[in-house]
Structures are given as structure tokens and as C-alpha cells.
Amino acid sequence: MYQPLAERIRPQTLDEVCGQQHLLGKGAMLRRIIEAGHIPNLIFYGPSGTGKTTVANIIARATNKPLRRLNATTASLADIRDVIDELDGISGMNGILLYLEEIQYFNKKQQQSLLEFLEDGRITLIAATTENPYFTIFNAILSRSTVFEFKPLEPADLEPAIQRGFALEAERLRTNIIPEEGVISLIATACGGDVRKSLNTVELLCAAAPVTVGDEPSVVTLADTREVAQRSNMRYDRDGDAHYDLLSAFQKSIRGSDPNAAVYYLARILEGGDLQSACRRLLVIAAEDIGLAHPTAITVVKACVDAAFQLGLPEAQLPLAEAVILLATSPKSNSAAMAIWDAAADVAAGKNPNPPAHLQDAHYKGAAKLGRGLTYQYPHDFPHHWTPQQYLPDSLKDKIYYNFGENKLEQAAKRYWDEVKGE
């Protein structure tokens, strides 16, 4: 029966697993747990094709418990009950090892149905997820499990598996397949740290390799490899970690005044087709990170964003690159952001007294009888259009939310007001 190359080449021991040395290298915590043979409930978190299922298979072979597999995208409560029912039979006498793929797709009731059996050890859970478990898995499961993060593989980790994949395919097809120089490194780089994707690419290239006569080798070309591998290195899920990780790196690069990194992350986001998130984040950055140090920057960014939406991709990258470089190279101030966050924190904490009576609305009959607006002083009647009076409620009258930033513009404003107020 036909088996995909990725399945035929699947490692059988921890030493054969590509990469993940932080988990499986000599002395690493997960390796020590597996070798000790006392397997706790585990959550494997990481992108597809990074070895989560392979390691679960190796663990299953190292225990004397039967392995049961469920995929949360298709499994139901009835499937969970079938596993639980086995605990009363001969096969489940020593407990069951349950490998649950994509656990994030189980709802709260489905996840909670396992709790009793995880608690008493009759079921040992190895759950795999491509999404951040701290966002998608309920606390009751998390508190009974240990999370290990699987990371995308480096090209150097992938190359031996790709080389072996070509050899296995040549053997299966009974032909001499030779990849051109650079093909293996291109696949390793283009497949975004995903072993399965790399081996699927190898299998496809071998299947499409030209048929030759006699002992003449069948050559896998760089041109064919580029065509198959194009865009395959993109990891971008608008609802997943890749989305938020890229946007976070994007904003932090601009905040850190690194235009090179900022443009790079913009290119990554736009390659994923996510024009809206890039534009929205740029407007946020202009207000949050540049702020009053360059207050007109937001107007330029808004113009660039409007132009980007009118142009659409790929041309939208041009005005957005202009906006990114402007923001990354601008002076920075978060004084306005800090002021509103501090004020919002007081409001959220219930500090919501009435404004002082002299500031309250006095434009109605009877306002004076209520003491509204009686002592209000109109600032424009005074020199420099300012006169001292209390504006915050009594309980907050000495609160300072805004502190002038150290940039040139805010310091100029500070000097002006220090002079006017005689400070």
C-alpha cells in the first residue's frame, strides 16, 4: 500500500528526530521525562511538521499502555466515551495513552470530559496544538499538563531529511534521481521549518522529474524547485500566533527605531495578504509610539494608509513602506499613551466623582440655584489665555496623568507653560 514519503521517513527514535534539541537533546527536560518512562500529561505546542506526532509515537512505543488517537477537528463526545469505556476492559487495565491532535478545536465540555481520568492517571494525555495553548486550552486541562513548545526547524536541521527523502524516492521509483546543486538547500529554506512540507516537496519533484532512458540520471532542477516551493515558506494565520507575533515584532521594530526590521516585517505581513492589519497597526503606532514627538506623523500615515487601500496589493506596499520608514526614523514619545492609560485605569477602578461644580453645565434655568458654574473663570479673559483654577474632581485634584516627553516639541511646550504658570 502506498505511504507518503513523510510517513515512510518518520523517525523511530529520539535521536532521529530533526531539530528540537532544546526538547530532545542530551539532558533536555522532555528527553529525560521520556527516558524515565513515567509520562505525565503533556501538551505539545508548535507549527505543523515540527515533530509533535513523531515524538508522541516514540513515547507510545516506550510505554506499556495502548495508544489511542483522536483528532479534535472530527472527534465527538461519543469518541471520547469509547476511549473511556476501554478503561474497564482488559486492554485498558494499565491505563490508556491518548494522543489528541488539534485539541484547540475541542469545546469546554469535551475537554472537561477527560478531567476525572487525567486526575486519577487512567488516561495519560498527549495533546498537540498549533495554537497558543494558554489562549485555546481551558485552565483545568492546562493545570494538569506540562507544555512543551516545538519550534520551526532550521534549514540545517532539514537538509539531512531532504537528502534521505530523495534517496528513498529514487529507490521507490527505481531510477537515478539527482537534485541539482542548491535544490536541497532551497527546499530546506523555502518550507518554513516544516519537515512534512519539505518531504512533500521532494515527493512532488521526484514524481515530476523527467523520464530518462537507461542509466541516464533524472535531474531535479532549481527552476522546478522554485516553482513548487514558491510561497511555501509563509507561516501566516490571521487568527493564530503567527499573525500576532509578526504584528508585535512589526510594532516593536518601529518603536525601537529600526527601519530595516520594520520594513522586513511589513513585507512578511503583506506577503500574507493582510493589508488591513498592517494599516491599522501603523495608525496605532503613530499615536502610541511617536505621539507628540512628531504629532503630524499621523496625518502622513493616514494619507499613506488611504493610498494603500486605493491602490491595493502589491502597489500598496509603496506608501506603507514610506509610512513605516517615517515612523521608525521619527523621534518617539509615549506620553499621550501613558496619560490616557493612567486615566483609564482610574476610571476602571471606579474613581468617577462628579466634576467640580464650577465646571458643570450652567446653561439651564435653575443651574445657579444648584451652584453650577458660579465661580468658573473664562481663560480667554486672562493674559496668555490661562488662569489657575481646579479642573479635576476634588478627590483627584492633585493627580498628574500627563508628563512632558523629553523630545524637542514637548520640551518646548513645557518651557512655555512653565513660564506662563510661573513655575
Describe the secondary structure blueprint for this structure.
Blueprint lengths: L4 H4 L12 H4 L4 H8 L5 E4 L6 H11 L4 E5 L5 H10 L9 E6 L6 H5 L2 H5 L3 E7 L3 H4 L2 H4 L3 E4 L5 H19 L3 E3 L3 H8 L4 H14 L9 E3 L1 H8 L11 H15 L3 H13 L3 H16 L6 H15 L5 H13 L5 H14 L59 H13 L3
Oligomer: single chain
Shape: flat
What distance separates the N and C termini?
86 Å
Number of helices: 20
Question: What percent strand?
Answer: 5-15%
Task: Give the biggest sheet.
Answer: 5 strands, parallel
Number of strands: 7
Low-confidence stretches: none
The spatial strand order of the largest sheet comes to 2-3-4-1-5
Give the C-alpha Rg. Answer: 31 Å
Give the mean pLDDT. 88
By helix and strand content, what is the structural category?
alpha/beta
Order of helices and strands: HHHEHEHEHHEHHEHEHHEHHHHHHHH
What is the share of helical residues?
A: 40-55%
Explain what this protein looks like in three dimensions.
The structure is a single chain. The protein is α/β, with parallel strands linked by helices and 423 residues long. Helix content is 48%, strand content 8%. It is flat, with a radius of gyration of 31 Å.
